[in-house]
C-alpha cells in the first residue's frame, strides 16, 4: 500500500517525509532544486504519465510537489492511503512567503512575490517556480493565493471520498489518531524545524 501526502507546501510535508524515511519507508520527495523534484513537476504539468509511473513504482510514500498542490490526487487508487493536512490561511501564507524570501538572494527580497518566484526559477528551483505559476494562476495577491489554497483543499476533500483518505488539521499531526493512520510514529516540533537542516 502506498501513502500519499496531498498537503500543500508549508504544512509539515518535509518533516513527515523524513519521519517516513526514518521508519524504513521508500520516500519520494526532495529538495526543490534537485533533479527528481524538477522532473516530477515538469512531467506532471506536461501530463507525461509514463515518467511519473516509472518513478512512483520505486517508492511507497509520497510527499511534497507534485503529489500535493496539483490534481495528482485524481489518479490515486482507493486502496492506497492518502491524507490532507490543512493549516490556517494566515500562518500558511506568512510561512509560504518567508520560504520564498529564504530561497532568493537577500538583495532581491524587496521584490514583488511574482518577481521573487521568477528569481527562484533562475536559481535552479525550476519545478517550484513552474508549480507556483500553475497553482496560483500567476495571481499573487494575498486574497488570490488564499482562494487558490481553499479551492485546492475543497477539491481534494470532495473528491477523495473513501475509507483510506483522511483530512487532518495541522495540530493533529502529533496526536495518536494521526500516527495510527500513518502506521508510524512522528514527533514534529511546531513551529517547524526543517529536519533536512538538522
Layout: helices, strands, pairs:
Blueprint lengths: L2 E3 L7 H10 L4 E2 L6 H11 L3 H8 L4 E2 L18 E6 L2 H15 L9 H10 L3 H10 L6 H18 L5 E5 L6 H7 L16
Parallel strand pairs: 1-3, 1-4, 2-3, 4-5
Helix pairs in contact: 2-3, 2-6, 4-5, 5-6
Describe this structure in a few short sentences.
The protein is α/β, with parallel strands linked by helices.
What would you note in describing this structure?
The protein is an alpha/beta fold and 198 residues long. It has a single domain (3-197), classed as Rossmann fold. It contains eight helices and five strands. It has helices at 13-22, 35-45, 49-56, 89-103, 113-122, 126-135, 142-159, 176-182; strands at residues 3-5, 27-28, 61-62, 81-86, 165-169. The chain has a five-stranded parallel beta sheet, with helices on both faces. Helix 2 packs parallel to helix 6 and helix 4 packs across helix 5. It is globular, with a radius of gyration of 16 Å. The two termini are 30 Å apart. Residues 193-198 have low confidence and may be disordered.
**What is the mean predicted local confidence, pLDDT?**
88
| Shape type | globular
Radius of gyration: 16 Å
What CATH first level would be assigned? Alpha Beta
Structural class: alpha/beta
Number of domains: 1
The helix content is 40-55%
Distance between the termini: 30 Å
**CATH homologous superfamily name?**
P-loop containing nucleotide triphosphate hydrolases
Major sheet: 5 strands, parallel
- Determine the CATH topology: Rossmann fold
SSE succession = EHEHHEEHHHHEH
Low-confidence stretches: 193-198
For the largest sheet, list the strands in their spatial order: 2-3-1-4-5
| Name given to the CATH architecture | 3-Layer(aba) Sandwich
Strand composition percent = 5-15%
E-strand count: 5
Number of helices: 8
Amino acid at each position: 500500500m502506498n501513502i500519499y501526502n496531498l498537503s500543500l507546501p508549508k504544512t509539515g510535508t518535509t518533516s513527515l517525509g523524513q519521519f517516513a524515511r526514518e521508519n524504513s519507508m521508500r520516500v519520494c520527495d526532495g529538495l526543490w532544486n534537485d533533479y527528481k523534484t524538477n522532473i516530477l513537476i515538469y512531467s506532471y504539468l506536461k501530463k507525461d504519465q509514463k515518467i511519473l509511473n516509472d518513478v512512483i513504482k520505486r517508492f511507497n510514500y509520497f510527499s511534497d510537489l507534485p503529489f500535493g498542490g496539483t490534481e495528482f490526487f485524481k489518479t490515486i487508487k482507493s486502496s492506497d492511503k492518502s491524507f490532507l493536512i490543512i493549516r490556517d490561511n494566515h500562518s500558511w501564507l506568512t510561512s509560504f512567503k518567508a520560504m520564498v524570501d529564504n530561497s532568493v538572494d537577500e538583495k532581491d527580497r524587496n521584490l514583488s512575490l511574482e518577481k521573487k518566484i521568477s528569481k527562484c526559477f533562475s536559481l535552479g528551483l525550476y519545478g517550484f517556480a513552474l508549480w507556483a505559476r500553475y497553482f496560483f494562476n500567476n495571481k499573487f495577491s494575498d486574497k488570490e493565493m488564499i482562494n487558490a489554497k481553499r479551492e485546492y483543499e475543497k477539491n481534494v476533500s470532495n473528491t477523495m471520498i473513501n475509507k483510506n483518505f483522511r483530512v487532518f488539521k495541522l495540530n493533529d499531526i502529533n496526536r495518536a489518531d494521526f500516527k495510527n493512520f500513518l502506521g508510524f510514529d512522528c514527533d514534529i516540533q511546531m513551529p517547524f524545524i526543517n529536519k533536512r537542516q538538522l
